[in-house]
């Protein structure tokens, strides 16, 4: 969660600081990560939804990759039903859909109430406005489809059906790694777009740095990567969590905390 000064009518304290140094050991290099990814078998969870798990046991890293056909699924943002936040399993129970992943940064006040750190649009209603320190990117959906933009380039909030501000942008448009600093290893979650796909990625175990995750997302599919044209980091650390439920199967990636908002994917009505 973001450490940011966001001004609300009540005292806010950071929900979590990801600047801590975790004792995770050396990070795996990109080459063995891609080698493990090439060896991972993709399974079909639903028509238009592929799933693979990349495991590097020696480095305690597990990467879950959910690849949705963009024309077969809808994306929307939702927020907590309890002031103290929800786990993604609660969100899927409440809002339906087949997949949910944690969304943007949030704040916690002295009474444990959560509030979004930056722009959040739900069902065409702006819940909170943009904030300069809430992330460099915006994931949004509306009449023109699903997109990821830098904050300065995103459409006005009143033109969007759903949006969440978070960051950083990991892969710039065109499939170029968008960051340079390594950062610490941590559990991560990200959304990317590419080749007619909406791809959700969850990094479990000891995690990866933002740079290594960006490199993995930008790498070509033939090389074992995800082949993202553009990718956005979501909230990470203890917020990292996702759940799939459909076709008689459930895949749960548990988080260490509740979250204020999330991204839900549903099957597009025929």
Fill in the keyword field for this structure.
single chain; 270 residues; mainly beta; five-stranded antiparallel beta sheet; 21 strands; 10% helix
Write up this protein.
With 270 residues, the chain is mainly beta. The chain has three helices and 21 strands. The strands form four sheets. Strands 2-3-4-17-16-18-14-15 form an eight-stranded antiparallel sheet, with helices on one face. A hairpin with a 2-residue loop joins strand 2 and strand 3. The longest helix is centred in the first third of the chain and has 10 residues, at 30-39. The radius of gyration is 17 Å and the shape is globular. It starts with 11 loop residues before the first strand and ends with a strand. The model is unreliable at 2-14 and 16-21 (pLDDT under 50).
* Structural classification: mainly beta
Distance from N terminus to C terminus (CA atoms, Å) equals 37 Å
- The overall average pLDDT, rounded, is 91
Q: Kindly provide the radius of gyration, computed on alpha-carbon positions and rounded to a whole number of angstroms.
A: 17 Å
H/E topology pattern: EHEEEEHEEEEEEEEEEEEHEEEE
Reconstruct the topology from this structure.
Blueprint lengths: L11 E3 L15 H10 L3 E4 L2 E8 L4 E9 L3 E7 L8 H8 L3 E4 L3 E4 L4 E3 L3 E3 L2 E4 L8 E6 L2 E6 L9 E7 L2 E4 L3 E2 L8 E9 L2 E12 L1 H9 L11 E4 L8 E5 L2 E5 L7 E7 L3
Antiparallel strand pairs: 1-7, 2-3, 3-4, 4-17, 5-21, 6-19, 6-21, 7-8, 9-10, 9-13, 11-12, 11-13, 14-15, 14-18, 16-17, 16-18, 19-20
Brief write-up:
The protein has 270 residues and is mostly beta strands. Helices cover 10% and strands 43% of the residues.
């Amino acid at each position: 969660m973001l450490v940011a000064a966001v001004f609300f009518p009540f005292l806010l304290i950071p929900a979590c600081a990801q600047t801590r140094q975790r004792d995770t050991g050396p990070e795996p290099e990109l080459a063995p990560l891609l080698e493990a990814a090439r060896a991972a078998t993709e399974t079909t969870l639903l028509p238009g939804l592929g799933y693979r798990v990349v495991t590097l046991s020696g480095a305690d890293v597990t990467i879950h990759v959910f690849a949705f056909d963009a024309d077969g699924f809808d994306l929307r943002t939702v927020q907590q039903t309890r002031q103290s936040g929800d786990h993604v399993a609660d969100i899927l129970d409440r809002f339906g859909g087949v997949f949910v992943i944690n969304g943007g940064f949030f704040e916690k006040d002295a009474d444990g109430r959560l509030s979004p750190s930056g722009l959040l649009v739900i069902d065409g209603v702006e819940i909170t406005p943009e904030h300069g320190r809430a992330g460099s990117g915006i994931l949004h959906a509306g009449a023109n489809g699903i997109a990821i933009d830098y904050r300065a380039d995103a459409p006005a909030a009143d033109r969007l059906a759903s949006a969440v501000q978070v960051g950083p942008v990991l892969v710039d448009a065109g499939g170029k790694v968008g960051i340079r600093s390594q950062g610490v290893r941590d559990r991560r979650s990200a959304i990317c777009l590419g080749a007619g796909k909406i791809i959700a990625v969850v990094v479990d175990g000891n995690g990866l740095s933002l740079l290594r995750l960006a490199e993995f997302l930008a790498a070509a599919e033939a090389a074992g990567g995800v082949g993202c044209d553009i990718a956005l980091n979501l909230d990470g650390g203890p917020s990292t969590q996702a759940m799939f439920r459909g076709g008689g199967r459930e895949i749960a990636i548990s988080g260490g905390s509740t979250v204020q908002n999330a991204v839900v994917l549903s099957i597009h009505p025929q």
